């Protein structure tokens, strides 16, 4: 999956946090919803501008960031 087509960082939007392209929904928000026990289907239902692919991209984004921290 090419997460760069789904996630972007824009100055002035959500304090520069990574967000899903074309939205103000931060990757961090989706990760928090998952951590709180929400399913991918529940997140997509609550945020119709997102798809299951966006939720998977959030997980991949977190995994890549963790991998970078582990190898630094």
UniProtKB/TrEMBL annotation:
Tell me the protein's name.
DUF433 domain-containing protein
List the InterPro entries hit by this protein, alphabetically: DUF433, Homeodomain-like_sf, WH-like_DNA-bd_sf
A Pfam family in this protein? Answer: DUF433
Specify the species. Answer: Jatrophihabitans cynanchi
SUPFAM superfamilies documented for this protein: Homeodomain-like
